[in-house]
Amino acid sequence: MRKLLLLIAALLFFNSFASGDTEQANYFALYFNDTRCGYDIQTRKVDGERVISTDNIVLELERMGTPIKIDVKETAIETIDGMPLSFKATQKISTMDMSVEGDITPDGKMRIRVTNAGNTQELVQDFPKGAVMTEGLNLLFKRQGLKKGTSYAADLFSPSTLMAMKFTFNVGDKKQVDLLGRVVELVEIKGEYFLLESGSALFTYYVDDDFNSQKMIMPLAGMNIEVIACSREFALSKLTVAEMVDSMVVRSPVAVDDPETAKEITYTLKPIKADASFRFPETDNQQVSKLPDGSVSVTVKPVKGEMAHKFPYTGNDPGILKALQGTQYIQTNHPLIKELSQRCTQDKDSALDAALAIEAFVSGYIEEKNLSVGYASALEVAKSRQGDCTEHAVLTAALCRAAGIPARVIMGIVHVENGLFMGHAWTEAYIGNKWIGLDAALKDARDGFDAGHITLSIGNGDAGDFFGVMNNLGNFTIQDVKITN
Question: Which among 184, 206, 254, 435 could bridge 428 via Cys, Cβ 3.0 to 4.6 Å?
Answer without folding.
Answer: 435
